[in-house]
Write a structure and sequence with these properties.
The protein has one domain. Helix 4 packs antiparallel against helix 5. By secondary structure, it is mainly α. It is built from 5 helices and no strands.
Length: 163
């Protein structure tokens, strides 16, 4: 089983699920544009944000191409779950170049966690299907985005410049 199974359920479920994915991806694109500015012209971080934006496009694609749209759904799904940790490693480098060590380590932790979830799933298969690893990966990505978003708002409002 996969979370994407919800995208092909008859009735309102599939419409709500797929629309939710598309809206989430669009919001992630908006967040990524702000993150690009937050990288303070550090090329490594900007490359990471570019990969993050590709990840957002992959998320949109999962909603546009539900599970029954093979093979496009498979490619979009794999891209989404692979691009996130890659973008996090690159963004970590950008944060470290900006001397934002705490946020850099937090970002690296998100990359390590999402990678570890899939390594465990594919090596010892503790869960039937991929719904649990997908949920854990999405939760890590969402948590990272929300915490970093609040930090970016604080910096933008001038209330703090400590990272």
């Amino acid at each position: 089983m996969a979370l994407s199974d919800l995208g092909v359920v008859a009735g309102a479920t599939s419409m709500l699920f797929n629309t939710g994915l598309i809206i989430s991806g669009l919001l992630t694109l908006a967040f990524g544009s702000g993150l690009f500015k937050f990288m303070q012209e550090k090329a490594l971080g900007e490359i990471g944000v570019f990969v993050f934006l590709l990840d957002a496009l992959a998320l949109i694609s999962i909603g546009v191409f539900p599970e029954n749209a093979k093979p496009m759904h498979y490619y979009a799904s794999v891209a989404f779950f692979a691009l996130f940790p890659i973008s996090m490693v690159l963004i970590t480098g950008g944060f470290l170049l900006m001397a934002k060590v705490k946020v850099g380590l937090f970002t690296l932790l998100a990359a390590i966690f999402t990678t570890a979830v899939w390594v465990v799933q594919f090596s010892i298969r503790p869960f039937y299907g991929v719904a649990i690893p997908e949920t854990l990966s999405a939760l890590a990505a969402s948590t990272w985005s929300m915490i970093l978003g609040f930090r970016m708002l604080k910096v933008a409002s001038g209330s703090t410049s400590r990272q």
